[in-house]
Design a protein that fits this description.
N-utilizing Substance Protein B Homolog, Chain A, globular, single chain
Amino acid sequence: MTAPIRRRTRAREIALQLLFQFDLRGDDYGDDLGKTPAQLCADECQGAADVLEFATRLVEGTLGHRTEIDVRLQAVTRNWDLKRMANVDRNVLRMAIYELLYCNDVPPKVAINEAIDLGKKYSTANSGGFVNGILDRVRLDLEKERAAGAAGKTASAPAAAASAPPPLDADSHELGA
């Protein structure tokens, strides 16, 4: 007997199936069916509100940030044209990169491991290593960017304090007094 599937894992599977359809059929896929991404997710969620919420968040977020995600994906897959990549792998990667960028409630290792499992389950046996290699590179790049951003904020804090107007004197009741 197999263990019951975890809720977020199920949400990722639903999201992947819909992202695959949007990628294959075009951006108007939902409109052609007269449904929003949330309604398409609801059709698959069987009434589980938390599954619906997370699946919808993944689909809408990935679609909404697809251009940015594809630029980042293309940067780490230098010799791969995204259109040549297997449709399942491309969408697993897009969704995982969305999670790495925008889902602060999902630890990076979880997003990567879930993506590896989806690749193995829905694509080829080689997809796991392919997905892992690309997502690990994206994760490292993001860590560097965030560290550089945090260092930049820390370095600019003294300069900002020096250029700020002096605090009001506690004994002063008027500006300029």
